[in-house]
């Protein structure tokens, strides 16, 4: 080996050593400090847990919890089932109520019905959005309010015919929702100016006339199958699911009969032993129809009736004719309980005083009947009923002059249901 070669090898060795050392030092220089490493680990863990939570949220929203709802129609249904503590404690039964006043469009169970009627008409090609098509309905208020709100959301107009003795806040609300409102004198169903008959006529006039755009559709909640169907596919299954299929009795008033029929048809198909009980206000003939097969109320006696319709302060339930929606489930109704106006008003006050629940007249009737039924059945049973609408809809009538508080309200539940 020449000297030159030796120098070359030694040089290469030194250079290699220097490069190796340099690289090592570069590597050492770039190694992460422990804290940054830990931070990365934390970030990894945090992002995993965030993605876990996201997938939890996604799962939850698929189940309907916290989901983004598709318009106001998306806020209809899936209402909470509330235990009414005061009534449950006092009777030893679990008295549960579907909070139907929390339906998001018109704030009553009629949201389900209005949406169902509109969707069915759309499927049949009877309604075209933004064409001037108008929905006509005869209603004591709740169905009209639901229809008016949903009509706005889907590009239709609403025209509501209602008796002129219903609480004024209902027609005020309808006007604010942009509906046309006709308040007419209460009349028997044989009268062509009765509010339901008038709505049918107005729909026909719209379609046949030249002066209005689009066509008129009579919603016909009393006879339309879409009514009980909404409760058969919505309210009934929700009750079944929320109670885990454990229900002894379902109690409801009937206006059109859609609620009691739809829920009865669903629940009895799953739970053949469940008791279906009608809550009927004074003046309504349905109590006797269920109990004895005859449509008659003593208040209907010649010379004793004060109003043309059902003689009660209660709005929305009680009727003196059999409708298709009531007939759909009538044979499944096991019993009926009569509720007086006095009992209903006292119960409404009781619910505010003891539970902070402020409801309208039909909800109060339901709660009286549920309490009477609990006393009949004895402790240990589970009874489901409905809270239909808020007391705010009834300030000028049912709730007029009924302030809560004071000795007058200090009555026992026994006294209320016995009054
Ligand atoms: C406030 C209220 N509750 C209950 C009902 C009764 O429901 P249904 O018509 O399904 O018998 C009505 C009916 O109009 C109502 O307006």
From TrEMBL:
It is found in: Mitochondrion outer membrane. Residues 32-55 are annotated as: Disordered. It catalyses: O-acetyl-L-serine + hydrogen sulfide = L-cysteine + acetate. Keywords: Membrane, Mitochondrion, Mitochondrion outer membrane, Pyridoxal phosphate, Transferase, Transmembrane, Transmembrane helix. The keyword Protease does not apply. Its EC number is 2.5.1.47. GO terms for cellular component: mitochondrial outer membrane. One of its GO terms (molecular function) is cysteine synthase activity. It is a single-pass membrane protein. The lineage of its organism: Eukaryota, Fungi, Dikarya, Ascomycota, Pezizomycotina. Its cofactor is pyridoxal 5'-phosphate. The keyword Protein transport does not apply. Its main location: mitochondrion. It comes from Bimuria novae-zelandiae CBS 107.79. This is Cysteine synthase 2. GO terms for biological process: cysteine biosynthetic process from serine. Belongs to the cysteine synthase/cystathionine beta-synthase family.
């Amino acid at each position: 080996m020449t000297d030159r070669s030796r120098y070359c090898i030694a040089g290469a060795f030194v250079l290699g050593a220097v490069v190796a050392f340099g690289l090592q030092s570069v590597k050492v220089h770039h190694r992460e400090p422990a804290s940054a490493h830990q931070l990365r680990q934390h970030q990894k863990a945090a992002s995993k847990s965030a993605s876990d939570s996201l997938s939890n949220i996604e799962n939850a929203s698929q189940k309907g919890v916290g989901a983004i709802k598709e318009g106001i129609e998306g806020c209809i249904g899936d209402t909470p089932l509330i235990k009414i503590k005061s009534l449950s404690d006092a009777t030893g039964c679990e008295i549960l109520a579907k909070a139907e006043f929390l339906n998001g469009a018109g704030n009553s169970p009629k949201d389900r019905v209005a949406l169902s009627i509109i969707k069915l008409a759309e499927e049949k090609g009877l309604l075209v959005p933004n064409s001037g098509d108008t929905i006509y309905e005869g209603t004591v208020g709740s169905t009209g309010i639901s229809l008016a709100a949903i009509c706005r959301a889907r590009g239709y107009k609403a025209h509501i015919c209602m008796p002129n003795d219903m609480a004024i806040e209902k027609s005020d609300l309808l006007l604010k929702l942009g509906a046309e409102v006709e308040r007419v004198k209460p009349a028997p169903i044989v009268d062509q100016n009765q509010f339901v008959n008038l709505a049918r006529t107005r729909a026909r006039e719209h379609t046949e006339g030249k002066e209005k755009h689009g066509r008129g559709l009579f919603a016909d909640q009393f006879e339309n199958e879409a009514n009980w169907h909404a409760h058969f596919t919505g309210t009934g299954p929700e009750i079944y699911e929320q109670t885990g299929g454990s229900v002894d009795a379902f109690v409801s008033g009937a206006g059109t009969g859609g609620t009691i029929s739809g829920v009865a048809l669903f629940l009895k198909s799953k739970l053949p032993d469940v008791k279906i009980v009608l809550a009927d206000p004074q003046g309504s003939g349905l109590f006797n129809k269920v109990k004895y097969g005859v449509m008659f109320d003593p208040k209907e006696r010649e010379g004793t009736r004060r109003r043309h319709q059902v003689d009660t302060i209660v709005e929305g339930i009680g009727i003196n004719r059999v409708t298709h929606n009531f007939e759909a489930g009538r044979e499944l109704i096991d019993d009926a309980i009569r509720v007086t106006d006095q009992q209903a008003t006292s119960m409404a006050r009781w619910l505010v005083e003891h539970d902070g629940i402020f409801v309208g007249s039909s909800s109060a009737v339901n709660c009286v009947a549920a309490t009477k039924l609990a006393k009949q059945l004895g402790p240990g049973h589970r009874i489901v009923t409905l809270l239909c609408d808020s007391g705010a809809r009834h300030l000028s009538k049912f709730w007029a002059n009924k302030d809560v508080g004071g000795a007058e309200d200090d009555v026992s539940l026994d006294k209320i249901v016995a009054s």
